[in-house]
Each structure stands twice: as structure tokens, then as C-alpha cells.
Design goal:
Elements lengths: L1 H9 L3 H15 L4 H16 L5 H9 L8 H15 L1 H13 L5 H17 L2 H19 L3 H11 L10 H10 L3 H30 L9 H15 L4 H11 L5 H19 L7 H31 L2 H12 L3 H18 L2 H18 L4 H14 L8 H10 L3 H7 L1 H16 L2 H4 L8
Helix pairs in contact: 1-16, 2-3, 3-15, 4-15, 5-14, 5-15, 6-7, 6-12, 7-8, 7-9, 7-11, 8-9, 8-20, 9-20, 9-21, 10-18, 11-19, 11-22, 13-14, 15-18, 16-18, 17-18, 17-19, 17-22, 18-19, 19-22
Length: 442
């Protein structure tokens, strides 16, 4: 009903529907997303005649000609170096020592190390792969069913795009013209809320099914374990410390923080003797593969977004949505529904580039702060990483364990529900995402 109203308001014709049908068909045929988006954009421009076809070539370059995007390959490379040097295992040791006093301690440690990895790499898939290889076998040994262990890692790795520094916030900042540093600051509390929601959900599930014991340490024993793990691995926290202090103090831009993190991590790897020159080709190729997926999507999404704007789709959506109801809480729920559904069928990057310009005017129309909207959008899309049919994190952990995606998805339902509750909290309580911001953004 809503889309019919949009079509009537904007007077959408075959010049819109045929490219959309082509896009859906190409995605269904497993054509790369960037190729599907680019094909739809070119066909839309050809059929509408509203804009010259030369716009595509121009926008391909201007869409990625941004200094902020340089941070993406740097954070991805930092994550790869972190794994190669073995520093990620130091995070796990500290997280395990920190949570060993609780029942379900190693499950909690798995979630925490996902958050620690997220604070460096900014990528959920990288976190799912790195943490999954370290923890899933040990989770199974501790008593967790393999599908649930996979679901726990997949859910924890969602924090990769939710806890700053995050690639997703860099992209949405570029699309909407908002400083990435500001978005990182706004996303800190919501990202931690998601992390603790997953942590608490695991503790509740573990208490119900008694997967893992523990929790019988005295305070002095726990403090001793924590002290020993920090003593042997404190230097691993230098890297996230540099990133957080540099960005949140304003001394470094995200790109500069990423570059500094790469250099420091490499130096630490050489000093520890865990990194060799022979490791560089594999690291660079791995990072290039991830980066090669993200940047073409951004490039080809730019002309498509501009074509949609010229056709008046964002304005039509606002008019149609407010025509259905003027209740802000219902319109917010509508946006969340669209974002969660979109996150289930498509990756975050194209969702951001396509949907952010469409939904942002509606958020502004109901008085939602632009920063709050960005945080709500990224968090809602993050739920899609553990929901079929796409569920990128589900595919990653399934790939490294051989476990059925459907079995993992079924065990991930409690985490989906807890994350959705946090999304609602962010959407209806502006202070969650604006408390740390200067007054000018509130």
C-alpha cells in the first residue's frame, strides 16, 4: 500500500520499475551487487532521459573521491595484521580472565573479544572469521552445541559495524555529509548497548540450558587471573587505545587513526617476532579482496542514488508515509521495519547508499536528529547480519565450521530479539546516541 502511494505521488513509470526488476533479477542470479546496482542505474538513466549517461562515468569517480574512504582499507588491514601477529589471542586471554567468575564465562569472553576486535577492524565479517577460528571449537568443548556456538560468534561479530571505528559509519557519513568522527562518538554508547545485550542474552540462555559451568572462583583468584593476563598481553591494547584516543580527542581523523594503527600493529608484530616480511603479500591480498567488494558498491550506488533523487523518490516517500499516518512513533517503526527487512536481503553498504537518502527526509520531517537517524539505521541494518536469507555472519561462521546455516539461524533468534530491543531503545530515546555529542548536535 505504501509503495503504491509513492508511485502515485511521484508518478513512477516503467523507467523506474524495469531497472528495479533488473536489479532484483541480477541479485537473485548471484551477480555481484556492484554490477547489479550499476546495471540498474544505467538502465534508469537511459529509459528516463532525465540525466545524461555521461553522469555514470563522472559519478563513479566522484562517488569514491573522498579522503574519508581511505580509512576503510586501513582499518581492514589493521584487522588482518592483528590476526597475523597473534595480538587477537591476547584479547581473548584478557576477556576470558575478565569473565571467568561467571557461569558461561567463555561464552561471555567470546562476545567481549568480538567487541574488542570490532574496536579495531570496523568489519563484522572479519571479526566473525577471526574470532570464530579462535573460539568455536573451545565453545563446543565447554559444552555449547555447535550451532549455538556459531550463532554466538555471529551475533557478537555484529558489533563490527556497530562499535566505532566502523566502516558503515564512514560510508553513511560520506553519503549524508556528516563527520565520521561525530558519528563514531554518537555510536559508542549504542554499540556498547548491543554488546551487553548479546552478553546478557547468552548468560540467560546458558542459565536456562546449563551449557557451561564456572563461576566458582574467589575474588582473589579472579583478580590474580586477570592480573596475569593483563601483564602478559597489555601491549595488545595499545592499538585500540591509539584509535579511540586519537579519534575521540580530535587529535586524529579516522583516516589518520587507521594509518597510525596499521603502522603500530606492524611494528609490534616485528618486535614480538610474530610477523615476517613473507606475511605481507597474503595480508595485502586479503585486505584488498574485502576492500574490493566495498568500494565498487559505493561507486556504482552514487549514480543510482542521484537518479532516484531526480525522479523524486525520496520526496514521494516522505509525502506518502506521512499521508498514511502522522504519528512519529509509527513512522519510526515503519523505518525500522524497512531497514531490518532490507538488512535481511542485502549487504549494509548498498543499503546505506540507496536507503539513507530516501529515509533521511522522513526522519527530518518527524523531527529526528540526523545523528540519531544514522545510528538507528546502522544498528537496524546490523540485525540483518544474523538473519536469513543473506545473514553475512551466518555464512562466514558456516563456512569455517561446516555447520548448517539454518541451524545457526535458529539458534540466533534470541540474539536477534535482544538486538531489536536495543534498536527500538535507540530510536525512541535520542539521548542514547546524543549524550556524548557537543550541544550543537543535540
Amino acid at each position: 500500500m505504501l509503495w503504491t502511494t509513492v508511485a502515485q505521488t511521484v508518478e513512477l513509470g516503467w523507467d523506474f520499475y524495469v531497472p528495479v526488476i533488473l536489479f532484483v533479477a541480477l541479485i537473485a542470479l548471484a551477480v555481484p551487487v556492484w554490477a547489479a546496482i550499476g546495471s540498474a542505474a544505467i538502465l534508469m538513466l537511459l529509459m528516463s532521459g532525465d540525466l545524461p549517461l555521461s553522469l555514470v562515468g563522472e559519478r563513479l569517480f566522484t562517488g569514491i573521491d573522498a579522503f574519508a574512504l581511505t580509512a576503510i582499507p586501513l582499518f581492514i588491514l589493521t584487522g588482518d595484521v592483528l590476526v597475523r601477529t597473534g595480538l587477537s589471542r591476547k584479547f581473548l586471554d584478557v576477556a576470558e580472565a575478565l569473565t571467568c567468575f561467571t557461569k558461561g564465562g567463555f561464552g561471555s569472553a567470546t562476545v567481549l573479544v568480538c567487541g574488542m576486535f570490532a574496536a579495531i577492524s570496523g568489519s563484522d565479517a572479519a571479526g566473525a572469521a577471526a574470532v570464530g577460528r579462535m573460539t568455536i571449537a573451545r565453545l563446543v568443548e565447554a559444552g555449547y552445541p555447535r550451532p549455538y556456538a556459531c550463532a554466538l560468534v555471529a551475533a557478537g561479530a555484529c558489533t563490527g559495524i556497530l562499535i566505532p571505528p566502523s566502516i558503515a559509519y564512514i560510508i553513511i557519513g560520506l553519503v549524508l555529509g556528516i563527520s565520521a568522527s561525530t558519528l563514531f562518538l554518537a555510536a559508542l554508547i549504542p554499540g556498547l548497548c548491543i554488546l551487553f545485550a548479546i552478553l546478557i542474552t547468552n548468560l540467560i540462555v546458558n542459565r536456562i540450558y546449563a551449557y557451561e559451568g564456572g563461576g566458582d572462583l574467589s575474588f582473589s583468584e579472579w583478580l590474580g587471573n586477570l592480573g596475569r593476563s593483563l601483564k602478559s598481553g597489555w601491549y595488545a591494547f595499545i592499538v585500540p587505545g591509539i584509535i579511540f584516543y586519537g579519534i575521540f580527542s580530535g587529535r586524529l581523523t579516522p583516516t589518520e587513526a587507521g594509518a597510525t594503527a596499521v603502522v603500530v600493529t606492524i611494528m609490534m608484530g616485528f618486535l614480538l617476532g610474530t610477523l615476517k616480511w613473507a606475511d605481507f603479500p597474503a595480508m595485502l591480498v586479503s585486505s584488498a579482496k574485502v576492500n574490493g567488494v566495498i568500494l565498487p558498491i559505493i561507486a556504482f550506488s552514487a549514480p543510482l542514488a542521484e537518479a532516484l533523487a531526480i525522479m523524486g523518490v525520496p520526496q514521494g516517500f516522505v509525502t506518502s508515509a506521512t499521508g498514511l499516518t502522522e504519528e512519529p512513533w509509527l513512522l519510526i517503526l515503519l523505518m525500522i521495519g524497512i531497514l531490518v527487512a532490507a538488512g535481511c536481503v542485502m549487504e549494509t553498504t548498498p543499503n546505506i547508499v540507496i536507503l539513507a537518502p530516501i529515509l533521511m527526509p522522513l526522519a527530518e520531517n518527524i523531527g529526528m536528529n540526523e545523528i540519531q537517524f544514522c545510528v538507528m539505521m546502522i544498528t537496524a541494518l546490523g540485525v540483518g547480519f544474523i538473519t536469513p536469507p543473506l545473514g553475512l555472519n551466518l555464512f562466514v561462521v558456516s563456512g569455517i565450521t561446516g555447520e548448517s546455516i539454518l541451524k545457526i539461524a535458529a539458534r540466533a533468534i534470541p540474539f536477534v530479539l535482544s538486538m531489536f530491543v536495543v534498536v527500538l531503545f535507540i530510536a525512541y530515546v535520542p539521548a542514547v546516541s546524543t549524550t556524548l555529542l557537543p550541544d550543537i548536535y543535540k
